[in-house]
Amino acid sequence: MKAEATTITDQPETVIEYDAVTKRFFSRGSLVTALDDVSLSVRRHQFTSVVGPSGCGKTTLLRLAAGLEPTSLGETRYLGKPVRGINTAVGYVTQDSNLYPWMTLRQNVEFPLEIRGVPAKERRERADEYIAMVGLTGFEGHYPYQLSGGMQKRGSIIRTMIYDPSVILMDEPFGPLDAQTRMVLQAELLRISRLKQQTILFITHDLTEAIALSDVVVVMSARPGRIKQVFDIPLSHPRDVFQIHAHPGFSETYAEIWDCFRSEVLSQQSIRAGDVAAEVAP
Ligand SMILES: Nc1ncnc2c1ncn2[C@@H]1O[C@H](COP(=O)(O)OP(=O)(O)O)[C@@H](O)[C@H]1O
Ligand SMILES: [Mg+2]
After folding, report:
1. Ligand 1 centroid – CA 58 distance (Å)
2. Closest ligand, as measured to the CA of 268
3. Ligand 1 surroundings by CB, under 6 angstroms
4. How do the residues of the chain divide into helix, strand and coil, expressed in percent and rounded to 5?
5. Residue whose CB lies within 8 A of the most ligand 1 atoms, among 59, 171, 275, for a mutation test
6. CATH number of 11-90+167-178+199-274
7. What number of other Cβ atoms are within 10 A of residue 248's Cβ?
């Protein structure tokens, strides 16, 4: 009996499941297939990254899990149940920063704690700690319009991290940040997500970032988005994101995934070149 129970709890449970998902949009009078027959399981306590060329449906993948879009075919499930309507159980860091314009930075960062009933003193302390972590001390009283794009982005990332959701969707969260800030946040995210055993579905177009942070890296094909290959990342922990190139096994892992990813990046370049050719053609 005991052995059986151990086996069951030890098995990684699927948190988000895309089951033969196709997503189409009507756009400018025609039908665009954003995702084509995507099946993917995001497992509990794992850090799963999705890499793929721009326009391959990465954001759409997250919007389906967040319940902001319905599937066209197939099903998205959260903890075994079909996602219908907004999925409030997940934290979602969107591609664009989405701070509330009528609140100061500190009010924005405190807000998720406020709605969870955390006392004022404690939430202020925690907010200031997170604000300091991303180098925004001194800007607590600023409104979003008084902050640069990168500062707003940092604010929206910590606004999700501060309340420790057990499942987080992150859409290219570190994209617009400078290299140093980016690594500081990568290191913090890696540390916190492992400490709290969070389940993370992370979108990036940066393969180094994906490998540094993840247990699993999913490579998507250029439009229409399909899963091309799923890689387990064998790098040991702790990982030093500042020196990830020196981590044993990094180069081999990078080379193997890049071999799969390269053709998608190149095919996207040729799609772009084709678009340009079509535009300049008489
Ligand atoms: N609401 C929408 N209406 C029409 N087309 C959309 C919509 N959202 C996404 N698309 C199209 O679906 C494809 C995938 O988009 P997206 O998921 O944003 O890709 P990615 O995040 O990988 O860049 C693109 O061709 C995009 O133009
Ligand atoms: Mg996107």
Report:
1. 8
2. 1
3. 25, 27, 32, 34, 52, 54-60, 223
4. 40, 25, 35
5. 59
6. 3.40.50.300
7. 9
Q: What is the pLDDT of residues 164-199, one digit of tens each?
A: 899 999 999 998 788 888 998 899 899 999 998 999
- Closest-lying ligand to the alpha carbon of 60? 1
Q: Is the link from the previous residue into 238 a cis peptide, with omega within 30 of 0?
A: yes
pLDDT in tens, 73-128: 999 999 999 999 999 899 999 998 889 999 999 999 999 999 999 999 999 999 99
What's the CA-to-centroid distance between 33 and ligand 2, angstroms? 15
pTM of the model: 0.89
The minimum-distance atom of ligand 1 relative to the CA of 69 is 1
Q: Measured between alpha carbons, how far is 47 from 183 in angstroms, rounded to an integer?
A: 17
